[in-house]
Design goal:
The chain is an alpha+beta fold. About 25% of the residues lie in helices and about 25% in strands. The strands form four sheets. Strands 1, 2, 3, 4, 5 and 11 form a six-stranded mixed beta sheet that branches. Strands 8-7-9-6-10 form a five-stranded mixed beta sheet. It has a four-stranded antiparallel beta sheet with strand order 13-16-12-17, sandwiched between helices. The relative contact order is 0.16. The chain binds prephenic acid. Prephenic acid binds near residues 157, 163, 200 and 278.
Length: about 450
């Protein structure tokens, strides 16, 4: 069944502003990167009066929305964007925090490739059959998955990882599916094995998780929600082991970085080694009976793998928070009845810094706050050489810029800001317009225990 659905699914380009004013030429040209357009824009006006844009795409049905998206997608199907590869709480043992979770083995790439064959048995065997048929409480306003079961959320790591807790916060009754790599989590959604993927993108202490920004561009999934998870690390060792016996600490690099000073202050000047994820580090120590090694992981990982909590709250800052994005095959319909955020990525092919300044001013002039800006190397054109016979060759680094701003794509000001941004850029993609995580601040709440619904 999964394969049938996959082959008939339209490849959507997120484009919330579909029926549009003729001011920008053919409606389908709006928000498409320049090289997707068949010809020059009819009107090159930059500052559009807010009233010139058609009513926001609200009140329409999901079917209308998706049909419109599909129309757009058909216009761009032949092209591929820079960086794109063209591919297309503890209630039961099946819940994301369920006791049975420890038995789940992460999905690996090998399993995924076998699941994409025409035989679907393998695919279905990968994931235990869901048994919870009740309304889902999800933050992204999307309809329940088509297979009519629990929402399946793919995350990188093993049970007890913070990404699993983030999945549970966003979708309290979900079935969390462990994957051994982020790439696998993305593919699990693309192959209809999972309905959502969870992706950590930044941490209040460690900063951006750069590789994951690159993944957003390489795949065509849409951001449909965000979760800001307080991350409270514990130092875990085998039962009976004392701090003095330790000569190694292993964990996810982000977790090691987030606890660096505290470990030193605790007198643990021992070797630190990077591991795939925090919970897998705890699992390794437990499985191999490593009495000289501690893991940094969650209190839930300690429970799952029978580890002793040597120290709690060892992150360097009490208010340590990681931001996760929820990704889906289809975009959600942006709304205006609650705070929304929109994430975009763009590139420009003109020289100088003024392009970036102009892009940012498109938001500033409309009082739209930016919450994040990140730059990553332009994968297809990382360097631009400028020859000057007199002084030599300048090598300019080229970037993709990721911007998050506080507005919904259902708002005219956001639509107009993007219309303007498109004038300055050679590539522009809306990664998603989604509800902001507005969970009340509770710095003391632990990661696994504080999972709450949006
Ligand atoms: O290793 C985990 O438990 C994860 O979920 C990954 C991850 C990350 O990538 O930043 C998530 C939250 C914490 O910041 C530490 C690690």
């Amino acid at each position: 069944m999964a394969a049938t659905i996959l082959s008939s699914a339209p490849k959507l380009i997120y484009n919330p502003v579909l029926p549009s004013s003729e001011l920008l030429g053919h409606p389908s040209r709006r928000f498409l990167p320049h090289f997707f357009r068949p010809g020059p824009l009819a009107v090159r006006s930059i500052y559009l009066p807010e009233s010139s844009v058609v009513a926001p795409f609200s009140g329409s049905t999901r079917a209308d929305w998706q049909t419109s998206c599909a129309i757009l997608a058909s216009k761009v199907a032949a092209s591929s964007a820079p960086g794109d590869n063209g591919t297309s709480s503890s209630e039961s043992s099946q819940n994301h925090l369920g006791n049975g979770a420890a038995a789940l083995k992460p999905i690996s790439l090998e399993k995924l490739s076998s699941s994409s064959t025409t035989t679907t048995t393998t695919t279905l065997d990968l994931v235990p059959e869901a048994n919870l048929l009740r309304p889902l409480s999800i933050c992204d306003l999307s309809p329940p998955p088509k297979h009519g079961s629990q929402l399946r959320v793919a995350y990188q790591g093993v049970p007890g990882a913070y990404s699993e807790a983030a999945a549970g916060k966003a979708y309290p009754n979900c079935e969390a599916i462990p994957c051994d790599q982020f790439e696998v989590a993305f593919q699990a959604v693309e192959l209809w094995i999972a309905d959502r993927a969870v992706l950590p993108v930044e941490n209040s202490l460690g900063g951006s998780i750069h590789r994951n920004y690159d993944l957003l561009l390489r795949h065509r999934l849409h951001i449909v929600g965000e979760v800001q998870l307080p991350v409270h690390h514990c130092l875990l060792a085998l039962p009976g082991v004392r701090k003095e016996q330790l000569n190694r600490v292993i964990s996810h690099p982000q977790a090691l970085a987030q606890c660096e000073h505290t470990l030193t202050a605790m007198g643990l000047n021992v070797a630190r080694e990077a591991f795939d994820d925090t919970a897998a580090a705890a699992e390794l120590v437990a499985n191999q009976g490593l009495r000289d090694t501690a893991a940094i992981a969650s209190a839930r990982a300690a429970e799952l793998y029978g580890m002793q909590v040597v120290a709690e709250g060892i992150q360097d800052d009490e208010g340590n928070v990681t931001r996760f994005l929820m990704l889906a095959r289809e975009p959600i319909i942006p709304r205006t009845d609650r705070p929304f955020k929109t994430s975009i990525v763009f590139a420009h092919d003109r020289e100088g810094t003024s392009v970036l300044f102009k892009v940012l001013s498109a938001f500033a002039f409309r009082d739209i706050s930016l919450t994040k800006i990140e730059s990553r190397p332009h994968r297809h054109r990382p360097l631009r050489l400028v020859d000057d016979a007199n002084v030599g060759t300048a090598k300019h680094f080229e970037y993709m810029f990721y911007v998050d701003f506080e507005a919904s794509m259902a708002e005219a000001r956001a639509q107009n800001a993007l219309a303007e941004v498109q004038e300055y850029t050679s590539f522009l993609r809306v990664l998603g317009s989604y509800p902001m995580d507005m969970t009340p601040w509770a710095a003391g709440a632990g990661a696994a225990s504080s999972a709450s619904s949006d």
